C-alpha cells in the first residue's frame, strides 16, 4: 500500500456539450474503505456520446466521463483489495435505503452514485472508487485470463441482462432485436447463449454490424429498408419478444408494427422526450401485450454479468473493433457516433 501525493495524471475533463479536453490533474485522493485504480480499459458507451454531444441534466460538470471500466488497484484503503489486484467496477452504487430501493427498484435509486455522472469516471489514467461501491460488492476481481477490454464489457452485459429479464425470454420464443449496435450484439449473445431462444432476428442498418450479428448467433438479419416486405412473415409466426436497443421515432414505429398477440416489448435504448409511443389500449387489452422500459441494472445482475463474462459463458471476444488512446477520447466519441465500427474502447 502506498500513497500518491502531488502526482499529476491525465484525465479527459468534460465541461459541457462538445467541450472535453485532456488535462493534467491531481491524482485522486482516497479515503478509508476506498481504492484507487489505474484504468486499463474503458468502453465508449452511447450514453457518453449523448452527454458529449448534447449534455445532460443528470451530469454535473466539470467531470470525467466513462463508466465501463476495468483496471488495476494501485492504492488501497480496503483490506479486501491488495495493490496489483485486477478489478472491474460497476457503473452505479444504489443507496439501498430510498423508497425505490426498498421496493426492489435499486436500478432507479433516487440517490444513486454514478461513475461518470456524479462521480469522476474512467476517461483518465487513474480513478477513485468510492467506498459505497466496495461496501455493496460492486468491485470484483477480474481473472487473469479475462482481458482488460473484456472486463470493461461487464457493465453493458449487466444492463443488458436487466433489460432482457424484464421480458423473460423463453426457449420457444421468436425474438426480434431492433438495432445493430454493440449493445444489440451483446443482447444477441445473451439471448442465444444464456436464454437459449428458438429464433432470433436482428433488424439494423449497417451491413458490417448485421454480419457481426450473424457471427454472434442471430438466426436471421433484416435491413431496415427491407422490413416492410418481411414483416408479414414475422407477424404470421408471432413475435414473442421485441427488444428495442434503439429508440428513435423510426425504430419505435417499426417495433410497434411487429406487435402481435402476447408480444412482450422492452425499450432498452434511451429515448428523447419527443419520441411518441402510439398504441391502442384496446390492442394492449385484447392482445395481452406487455410494454416496459429498462434502465441500469441491479447489484445481483452486475454480479451475474461478472460471473457470465469471467467464466466465458458469454464470450465477447471480437466485439471490440477499435481502440483509442486517452488523448484521442474526443475522436473515440465521434467515431462511436458514426456507427462505422462495433465496440470502441479507450486505453488510457
From TrEMBL:
Domain Alcohol dehydrogenase-like N-terminal: residue ranges: 32-133
Record's keyword terms, sorted: Carbohydrate metabolism, NADP, Oxidoreductase
GO function terms (MF aspect): adenyl nucleotide binding; anion binding; oxidoreductase activity, acting on the CH-OH group of donors, NAD or NADP as acceptor
Taxonomic superkingdom: Archaea
InterPro entries, alphabetized: ADH-like_C, ADH-like_N, GroES-like_sf, NAD(P)-bd_dom_sf, Zn_alcohol_dh
Pfam families: ADH_N (PF08240), ADH_zinc_N (PF00107)
Example GO BP: protein tetramerization
Start and end residues of each Alcohol dehydrogenase-like C-terminal domain: 186-310
PANTHER family: L-THREONINE 3-DEHYDROGENASE (PTHR43401)
Name of the molecule in the record: Alcohol dehydrogenase
Naturally occurring in which organism (per UniProt): Sulfodiicoccus acidiphilus
Amino acid at each position: 500500500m502506498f500513497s500518491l501525493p502531488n502526482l499529476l495524471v491525465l484525465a479527459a475533463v468534460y465541461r459541457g456539450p462538445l467541450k472535453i479536453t485532456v488535462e493534467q490533474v491531481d491524482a485522486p485522493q482516497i479515503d478509508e474503505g476506498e481504492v484507487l485504480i489505474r484504468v486499463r480499459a474503458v468502453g465508449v458507451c452511447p450514453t457518453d456520446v449523448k452527454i458529449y454531444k448534447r449534455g445532460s441534466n443528470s451530469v454535473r460538470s466539470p467531470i470525467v466521463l466513462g463508466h465501463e471500466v476495468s483496471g488495476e488497484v494501485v492504492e488501497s484503503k480496503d483490506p479486501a483489495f491488495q495493490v496489483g489486484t485486477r478489478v472491474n467496477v460497476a457503473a452505479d452504487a444504489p443507496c439501498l435505503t430510498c423508497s425505490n430501493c426498498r421496493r426492489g427498484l435499486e436500478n432507479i435509486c433516487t440517490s444513486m452514485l454514478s461513475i461518470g455522472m456524479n462521480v469522476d469516471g474512467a476517461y483518465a489514467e487513474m480513478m477513485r472508487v468510492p467506498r459505497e461501491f466496495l461496501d455493496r460488492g460492486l468491485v470484483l476481481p477480474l481473472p487473469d485470463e479475462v482481458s482488460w477490454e473484456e472486463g470493461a464489457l461487464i457493465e453493458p452485459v449487466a444492463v443488458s441482462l436487466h433489460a432482457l429479464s424484464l421480458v423473460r425470454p423463453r426457449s420457444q420464443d421468436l425474438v426480434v432485436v431492433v438495432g445493430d449496435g454493440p449493445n444489440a450484439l451483446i443482447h444477441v449473445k445473451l439471448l442465444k447463449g444464456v436464454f437459449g431462444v428458438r429464433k432470433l432476428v436482428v433488424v439494423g442498418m449497417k451491413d458490417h454490424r448485421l454480419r457481426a450479428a450473424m457471427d454472434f448467433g442471430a438466426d436471421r438479419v433484416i435491413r431496415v429498408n427491407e422490413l416492410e416486405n418481411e414483416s408479414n412473415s414475422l407477424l404470421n409466426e408471432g413475435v414473442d419478444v421485441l427488444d428495442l436497443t434503439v429508440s428513435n421515432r423510426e425504430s419505435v414505429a417499426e417495433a410497434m408494427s411487429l406487435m402481435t398477440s402476447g408480444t412482450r416489448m422492452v425499450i432498452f435504448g434511451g429515448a428523447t422526450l419527443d419520441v411518441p409511443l402510439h398504441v391502442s389500449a384496446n390492442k394492449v387489452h385484447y392482445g395481452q401485450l406487455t410494454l416496459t422500459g429498462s434502465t441500469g441494472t441491479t447489484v445481483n445482475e452486475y454480479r451475474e454479468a461478472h460471473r457470465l463474462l469471467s467464466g466465458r459463458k458469454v464470450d465477447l471476444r471480437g466485439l471490440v473493433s477499435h481502440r483509442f488512446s486517452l488523448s484521442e477520447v474526443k475522436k473515440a466519441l465521434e467515431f462511436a457516433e458514426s456507427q462505422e465500427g462495433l465496440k470502441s474502447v479507450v486505453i488510457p
